[in-house]
Amino acid sequence: MPKIKEPRYHKIAQEIAEAIVNKKFEVGQKLHARSTLAATFGVSAETARKAISVLADLDIVKVVHGSGVEVLSRERAREFLSQAKESRNLQETHSQIKALIAKQKEDLTNLDESFTLLLDQTQRVNQHNPMSPFEYIPDANSDKLNRSIGSLNIWQNTGATIIAVLHDEDLILSPGPYANIQPGDTIYFVGTEKTVEAIQQFFEGPSTN
């Protein structure tokens, strides 16, 4: 993520203001000419000029033509440094928030990819293992309840082969044709996706004798 770069002249203005706050430059003192300040801070004369202009606009210094730069206020220099620090903190916070948002987007993308992979793997497992059982709990109001599997002709009507019935906490494996399906029972069966729809329609539809 690109980082906001502070202009060089603004940094030089802060260094001069810090020197004023630390009393390296006293109020009323005449600073060196801008060309000398440029050499002192290792920048171009234009950069030094912009830095002085920033301080002059804030009445921290005053450019006296022909005699250099005069220091006007230590208090304003302190305020300038404080505002500059708050601005840096704000920029850092903004960058951190953008980084967090980018990370969240990346995490969501990874989650979506993982979920898609899971669905794909699940579909392949079902294709290679068609005997994976489905489960279904008939509605308590179904008129197919309290009747035996044989009398309901479930396989003939739906194509489903019932392999187990969970009644309360008892799992009945390979229930015979005389096993009753009661309210609250969970039916485990094998078949296709169409079989699932057929089971639902069978138990929810009108009675089949």
From TrEMBL:
GO terms for molecular function: DNA binding; DNA-binding transcription factor activity; monoatomic cation transmembrane transporter activity. Keywords: DNA-binding, Transcription, Transcription regulation. InterPro entries: Bact_HTH_transcr_reg, RCK_C, RCK_C_sf, Tscrpt_reg_HTH_GntR, WH-like_DNA-bd_sf, WH_DNA-bd_sf. GO terms for biological process: negative regulation of DNA-templated transcription; potassium ion transport. Residues 120-205 form the RCK C-terminal domain. The keyword Transcription regulation applies. The keyword Nucleus does not apply. PROSITE patterns: HTH_GNTR, RCK_C. It comes from the Bacteria. Residues 6-74 form the HTH gntR-type domain. This is Transcriptional regulator, GntR family. It comes from Fructobacillus durionis.
